[in-house]
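User: Please fill in residues for this 366-position structure.
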């Protein structure tokens, strides 16, 4: 018997199949639409996760289901608005449009999050007079805002150039620490240290009181930074608190979630991992945060096998295991996975075999 090898489609064939699927979905084919949603699921999950993280501190009324429905709606809207005849690559188009539409939707939600006037009126109905309220609003001294902006500019000018650049990109342009680190050729911790030191200096310059911390850094007790600097400071403080939770990196109380079982797997190729089994899937529930603590793996296979943990469609950890061998890996770095994050276990191997999987996840209240 001669072994048959699977012939993978060429990039041209893949592109033509994608174009045909887009045209069918635009024509109303529900199966084609479902196939595109499945194919672009990692992109959709990453956008949902980014929006959820950016809104969790300011828009507590938004739930994961609301964000998921909105991202899928944006995807379908852009799908039907796409024009293949213009020669634009559909995945690139969808990635850019979802990013722009998602940012616009978040800004709209934040602008619409103000408390309704009817509620403000109901809070003090006995002593309220609409005419007096309007006069007070128009009589408000606008010079205070101008003075604060001038003071903020002066505080920025006092910073060293590297710190000023980080503050501008993170706080004003709204970029993440990871993006700024990649752009400046620095580590994420270096960007965070520069940002924190810069914001402390700005607080001191603007007259905030200082309070020593256990690390020796000066940390202000009261806030004087105007938005968006204060908003970004609060988000960074919350992120740092979550990323250093002792109960996620040490031994703490929590609910263990175990992804385990014995599963057969086919020959996929070391560079083409696939989902091992639908049972090995876990989504962090609302109001919780989780961390992957360890992976215990046993392999019955004639070649090396790579077991990978995948979070929101992106590789998280790669664990190579030799043929007919086992491994126990306790993760030294445990990232907090916020509500809505999806964890999957994938496998890649040159030959078929059997895998014994035991992955431990610690789930805790956020």
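Assistant: Residues filled in for all 366 positions:
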């Amino acid at each position: 018997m001669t072994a048959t090898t699977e012939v993978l489609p060429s990039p041209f064939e893949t592109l033509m199949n994608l174009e045909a699927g887009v045209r069918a979905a635009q024509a109303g084919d529900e199966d084609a639409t479902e196939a595109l949603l499945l194919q672009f699921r990692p992109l959709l999950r990453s956008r949902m996760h980014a929006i959820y993280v950016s809104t969790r501190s300011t828009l507590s009324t938004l739930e994961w289901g609301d964000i998921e429905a909105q991202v899928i709606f944006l995807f379908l809207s852009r799908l039907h608005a796409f024009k293949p005849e213009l020669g634009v690559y559909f995945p690139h188009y969808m990635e850019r449009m979802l990013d722009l539409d998602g940012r616009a939707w978040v800004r709209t939600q934040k602008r619409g999050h103000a408390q309704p006037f009817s509620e403000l009126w109901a809070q003090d109905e006995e002593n309220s007079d609409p005419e007096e309220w309007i006069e007070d609003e128009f009589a408000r001294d606008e010079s205070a805002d101008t003075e604060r902006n001038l003071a903020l500019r002066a505080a920025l000018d006092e910073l060293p150039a590297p710190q000023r650049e980080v503050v501008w990109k993170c706080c004003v342009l709204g970029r993440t620490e990871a993006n700024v680190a990649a752009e400046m050729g620095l580590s994420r911790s270096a960007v965070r240290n520069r940002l924190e030191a810069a914001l402390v200096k700005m607080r001191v310059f603007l007259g905030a009181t200082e309070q020593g911390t256990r690390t020796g850094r000066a940390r202000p007790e009261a806030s004087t930074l105007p938005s968006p600097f204060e908003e970004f400071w609060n988000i960074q403080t919350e992120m740092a608190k979550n990323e250093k939770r002792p109960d996620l990196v040490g031994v703490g109380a929590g609910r263990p979630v175990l992804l385990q079982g014995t599963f057969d797997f086919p020959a996929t190729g070391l560079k083409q991992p696939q989902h091992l089994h639908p049972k090995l899937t876990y989504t962090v529930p609302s109001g919780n945060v989780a961390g992957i603590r360890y992976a215990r793996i046993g392999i019955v296979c004639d070649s090396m096998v790579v077991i990978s943990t995948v979070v929101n469609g992106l590789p998280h950890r790669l664990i190579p295991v030799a043929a007919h061998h086992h491994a126990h890996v306790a993760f030294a770095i445990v990232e907090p996975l916020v509500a809505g994050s999806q964890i999957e276990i994938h496998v890649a191997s040159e030959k078929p075999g059997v895998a014994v999987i035991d992955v431990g996840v610690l789930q805790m209240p956020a």
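For context: The chain is about 45% helix and 20% strand.
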